[in-house]
Amino acid sequence: MTVGGVPGRPPRQSVREYVAATLRAALIAGELVPGQVYSAPTLATQLGVSATPVREAMLDLVRDGMVDVAPNTGFRVTEVTAAELDHIAEIRLLLEVPIMGEIAAAVSAERDVQLELLRPLVDSMIDTAQRQDLTNYLNTDTTFHTQFLALHGNDELVTTVRRLRDRSRLDGLRSVAEAGDLVESTREHYAMIDAALSHDRTAMEQLMREHIGHVRTDWAAPPASAPHSNQRKTVQ
């Protein structure tokens, strides 16, 4: 497995936070393959860090059920069934659609300022989508959605949604990016900001249904003719 395009860590972000976020995003994107065993030293070399924060991050992922310990070898990525992914998407629809609708319906000058601060995140997502840098794309995507949901003021909701996102698998995302379609899907994030600024609850709820729907449709799995996922071993 080789690393392609790993950027420098953001200012003030600890090595452990950087490693944990990168590995979680790589798991979600399918860059770390279910059933494959990865060693901490190998991952550390590719990420340009020591093995210690990688082991710590992987043990966190073990506790979250995203990887298992493979004795004397490393960590094995766990499988997530189609039924489990359907359940995750269903819960996200039940939580995020009405909450995002409430955020859109709210009237607050301070909230509007916070919404405008989300636009640079979308700009960054457009850039990483164009470069097909899926790991950093998903990191920024998670930041966008959790910061947006945080405007509702319920920290438990944000934590729950973040955990649900971590358990998702988007094995088809690379195919979407390679086809040039990921940028267009990413523009939906601009539309979410605009819907909230316009206080358009109906538009926001429809946007969220469609957006979460990507998780179980075009982002869910590679085409049947695509190479087997075990051939994709790049952490970006």
Summarize this structure as a short list of keywords or feature phrases.
single chain; 236 residues; mainly alpha; Arc Repressor Mutant, subunit A; Four Helix Bundle (Hemerythrin (Met), subunit A); 2 domains; three-stranded antiparallel sheet; 12 helices; globular
Question: What does this protein structure show overall?
Answer:
- The protein is mainly alpha-helical.
- It folds into 2 domains: 15-79, Winged helix-like DNA-binding domain superfamily/Winged helix DNA-binding domain (Arc Repressor Mutant, subunit A); 82-216, GntR ligand-binding domain-like (Four Helix Bundle (Hemerythrin (Met), subunit A), Up-down Bundle).
- Helices cover 61% and strands 4% of the residues.
- The protein contains 12 helices and 3 strands.
- A 3-stranded antiparallel β-sheet has the order 1-3-2.
- A hairpin with a 3-residue loop joins strand 2 (67-70) and strand 3.
- Helix 1 (15-29) packs across helix 7, helix 4 (82-105) runs antiparallel to helix 12 (201-213) and helix 11 (188-197) packs antiparallel against helix 12.
- The longest helix is centred in the middle third of the chain and has 24 residues, at 82-105.
- The relative contact order is 0.18.
- The model is unreliable at 1-7 and 223-236 (pLDDT under 50).
